[in-house]
Amino acid sequence: MNQLPHLQLIQRYNVPVPRYTSYPTVPFWPQSIDAEEWISRLKQRFEGCNNTLGISLYIHLPFCESLCTYCGCNKKITTNHTVEMPYIKALLQEWKMYKSILGSVPVVREIHIGGGTPTFFSPENLDTLLSGIKQGAMVHSIAECSIEGHPNNTNAEHLDVLYHHGFTRISYGVQDNDAKVQALINRIQPWENVLRATWEAREVGFKSINYDLIYGLPGQTLSSMEKTLREVLSVRPDRIAFYSYAHVPWTSRGQRLFDENDLPDAQLKMQLYMLGKAMFTNAGYADIGMDHYALPGEALFQARAEGRLHRNFMGYTTRESGMLIGLGVSSISDAGNAYAQNYKALHEYYDALEHQLLPVFRGCMLNEEDERFKKYILDITCKGITVPTASDMRFISAMNGNYLLQLLMDGLIEIDHGTIKVTPSGNHFLRNIARIFDIHLLRSERDTNSERTFSRAI
C-alpha cells in the first residue's frame, strides 16, 4: 500500500461525483412516470412496512423573503405572506390523496420540514399545517421530527409550536459569519441572531441543534473561516454539516450573480476543508461521513455506532423507515424500489391537485439489479462495509478496472473474501467509494460529461 499524504488524496479524489441520496441518482431518471405503477409499488411497500418500520414524511416549504445567491434549492422568492395558506391547503390535499391511496392509517416515524425557509410561515400557520398532517395519521410516540430554520426569522413562538408537535431537532443555516462573505452571498445574518435562535431552541427543549456551514463561498479566506469556526465551536452545536459549495450556475441562476474571481481557487478550497475537519475533530466531534460531524452521544453518532444509520433525500437519518413520502413542490418520494418527484413549478403543482391528480411528473422504477446496488451504496455510506454477491463482485471489478485497485492502493478500502470495507481514511471519501457501485454512471456516456452533472467531492 502506497499511502499518499492527505492533501494529495484530496486532490486525486476531488472529482465530480453524486451525493447518493438516491440510487439510481436523479440525472438518470426518466423524464416521465407511470403513475399507476408508482401507486402500485407505493401500496405494496406500505403494506409491508407500516406496522413495523413506519413511514417518513418530508414537507417542502419553498418560500423565502430574499434570494441567497449560493442556494441550489427549489425556492420561491416573495415578501407576500398571503401565499402561506393556499400552499398549506394544497399540501394537506396532497397528503389526503396519499392517505386515501394507502388505505389504512399511516404510522409516521419521522417528519422533516425543509425549504426554502420553513420559518417564513407564521407560527399559527405551521400549527395549522402540522395539525392537519396528524389528522388521519398516527405520529409515533418516538417519532423524530426536525425542521430547517433561518436564524433571522425563527422566533420563540415558532419553536413553541414546533416543540408542542413533537419537534426536537432544528438545523440552522449559518453558512458563514464573515460580513464580506455574507454580503457577497446576499445572506446578512448577524451572529447575535444565531446565538438567540440557538438559545431559544435549547430553552424550549430542542435536544439536537445542527449548524449548516459551507466552505468554498466567494470571499472566504483561511482567517475568516477560522474565525467563523471558532465562534461556532464556542456554542457546541450537537451536529455540524460542513458542505462544499457547488458552483453550478447552469442550474442555479442566482449563482450567475457571483464574480467567479471572488471564489476560492481549488487549492484554497481544499485548505478550507482541511481546516474545518481539523478544528471539528480537535473539538471532539466525530466524523460521521459525507460532510457530517456529531458530538459523541448525539443520536447521529449513536446510530452510526450501532449500525442504524440510514440515508435518503433528507440526508443522514438515525433509523431506516419503510418509505418516504414527499409533500410539496419538487419533493421526492421513495418507496424502496421506486421514486417519484413532484412538479418543481408552483403553478404545475397546484394545477395537478386541482385536477385531483398526484402532482408527480417523473420517477424511477428500480429493477432487481438496481435494488442490489442501491443496498451496496447504502451499506458503504451508512455502515462502511458491504458484501456484494460473487457475480456482482466480478461485475464491479470488471466495470471499475484500475479505479478499484487505486482505492485499494491509496488505503481507502480493504477487500477480504468478497467483503468491501471502508478504512478510517476512506471515511472521508465515501462518495468516491460509493461510485464503484453506480452502474448507471459507469454505463452511461454521462460519465464523460459529469463535470456539468454532479458537484465535485470537495
Verbal overview:
The chain has 458 residues and is of the alpha/beta class. It contains 16 helices and 19 strands. Strand 7, helix 8 (222-235) and strand 8 form a beta-alpha-beta unit. Helix 3 (84-102) packs parallel to helix 4, helix 4 (123-134) runs parallel beside helix 5 and helix 5 (156-164) packs parallel to helix 7. The longest helix has 19 residues, at 84-102. The two termini are 24 Å apart.
Write the layout of secondary structure elements.
Blueprint: H1 6-13, H2 35-49, E1 55-61, E2 63-64, E3 76-77, H3 84-102, E4 107-115, H4 123-134, E5 138-149, H5 156-164, E6 167-175, H6 179-184, H7 191-204, E7 208-215, H8 222-235, E8 239-244, H9 266-282, E9 286-289, E10 292-294, H10 299-305, E11 310-312, E12 315-317, E13 323-327, E14 332-334, E15 338-342, H11 346-354, E16 360-365, H12 368-382, E17 385-386, H13 390-400, H14 402-409, E18 413-416, E19 419-422, H15 430-434, H16 439-443
Parallel strand pairs: 1-4, 1-13, 2-3, 4-5, 5-6, 6-7, 7-8
Antiparallel strand pairs: 8-10, 9-10, 11-12, 14-15, 15-16, 17-19, 18-19
Helix pairs in contact: 3-4, 4-5, 5-7, 8-9
